[in-house]
Amino acid sequence: MKIKVCGLTDPANIAEVAQLGVDYLGFIFYSKSKRYCTLHKEIIPSTLSKRVGVFVNASLDEVQSDIQRCQLDAIQLHGEESQSYIFSLREQNKEVEIIKAISVSDESSIRQAHQYTTCADYLLFDTASHLRGGSGKKFDWTLLDKYQGDLPFFISGGIEVEDAPVLQSWNHPLLYGIDLNSRFETRPGIKDINLLNTFIKTLYHE
């Protein structure tokens, strides 16, 4: 199972998180977020972790610029991006992974995920919130029993240390990764390395 740590803002903290061996490092390029990232590729450390840029209804030119500026390996789309929008990004960036976030409030939210089957690589199910992520709140995970699509998915939204045993034993065949953010912070944008380390060791029975 993959681990993505999102909402990183500080170079020294990013380096510490990367040393934990996480699979994805997430940087939020949405100016209304408390975790808005202003770092350039020269500051973001080069690691084995994949770099993910998180965008909310950004223009294609803006996303393209940040992909190049920060040498992103993946992009996460957290707004109302259309299929045609995602296909345009795919055409320009064939080697970049595309993660489409789905804001979950009820069963109908799960059904809308199917429209992205042909254009995204992964889905990310997050708690519906006006904050566009980082709310610290969980949605009803049993709703994902209704998801029978083709795309693997990340689960996000209020995940904390105590959830590690539950996630470790969860056997949904398309669960690909876990997205960690606000419940692992000392303040917005700064991650608690001890909490992350405890979660990872519990998840992998280390």
Automatic annotation (TrEMBL):
A GO biological process held by the record: L-tryptophan biosynthetic process
N-(5'phosphoribosyl) anthranilate isomerase (PRAI) domain sequence ranges: 4-201
UniProt KW Isomerase keyword: yes
UniProtKB keywords: Amino-acid biosynthesis, Aromatic amino acid biosynthesis, Isomerase, Tryptophan biosynthesis
Catalysed reaction equations from the record: N-(5-phospho-beta-D-ribosyl)anthranilate = 1-(2-carboxyphenylamino)-1-deoxy-D-ribulose 5-phosphate
Family the UniProt entry places it in: Belongs to the TrpF family.
Protein name per the record: N-(5'-phosphoribosyl)anthranilate isomerase
Gene assigned in the entry: trpF
